[in-house]
TrEMBL record:
Biased composition (Low complexity): 1-16
Region (Disordered): 1-30
Keywords recorded for this protein, A-Z: DNA-binding, Transcription, Transcription regulation
Protein name: TetR family transcriptional regulator
HTH tetR-type domain segment(s): 30-90
PROSITE patterns in the cross-refs: HTH_TETR_2
Species of provenance: Streptomyces lasiicapitis
């Protein structure tokens, strides 16, 4: 099963099927985090990210300001915190790939699986909140900068896995930049079109074609690189 991909949108997620069911304390923590996130999104959409304070988010979520900071370190984290759940997804997909499969093949498979599943973490969701978050990020410079920082961390995580396998840190950085670049380009196109209101199925079909074409292009330069023994 492909790991879920990070994207600059998405509600705090529940455990995947097959994982250990969380206990009561963990469920309550997730419920509180989700309530804070939902309250923040509603306020940000109504008034703009910069015009909403953490105290106002806390009041809307019926928690203390300290509780908000216990769950999310900054106001930016309140909105983008769910991305942290996915920072290592690309690296994990490459690390866990089958023998004989290249890094590019593993990431192509993962991305196409996410698109086919209409995964909300890629932006392929009809949820109004997902679309609202995409627009907020696009229109708010501090959030856009934070999202770019996340993508860089994801690239660095992938590069570390490739360097450990191949023993060449420089080429690993080059390969990771190209592979993550493909994914970022696909995600950016999905986000742009979903924020513009394009139909979900049309966007998904075009995203799958773009992903195949982009990975084909990259593989011409990375053919034979990082094929697992």
């Amino acid at each position: 099963m492909a790991a879920r991909e990070a994207a600059p949108a998405g509600e705090p997620t529940a455990p995947e099927q097959g994982s250990r069911a969380p206990g009561l304390r963990e469920r309550k923590k997730r419920q509180t985090a989700t309530r804070i996130w939902q309250a923040a999104v509603e306020l940000f959409v109504e008034r703009g990210f910069d015009k909403v304070s953490v105290a106002e988010i806390a009041a809307a979520a019926d928690v203390s300001k300290m509780t908000v900071f216990n769950y999310f370190g900054t106001k930016e984290d309140v909105l983008l915190g769910p991305m942290e759940e996915h920072v290592a997804d690309a690296a994990d997909a490459v690390r866990d790939r089958a023998p004989g499969e290249s890094a590019a093949e593993a990431l192509r498979r993962q991305l196409l699986d996410l698109i086919e599943a209409r995964d909300a973490s890629v932006g392929l969701s009809d949820s109004p909140r997902t679309i609202q978050v995409l627009r907020l990020i696009t229109e708010t410079p501090v959030l856009l900068h934070r999202a770019h920082s996340f993508h860089l961390r994801r690239q660095q995580s992938l590069a570390a896995v490739l360097a450990a396998e191949t023993g060449d840190a420089v080429l690993a950085e080059v390969a990771a930049a190209q592979l993550i670049g493909v994914r970022n380009a696909v995600f950016a196109e999905v986000h742009r079109r979903r924020a513009a209101g394009d139909p979900l199925d049309h966007v998904a079909a075009d995203a799958a074609r773009l992903a195949r074409d982009a990975f084909d292009l990259v593989e011409k330069g990375l053919s034979g690189y990082a094929v697992k023994a």
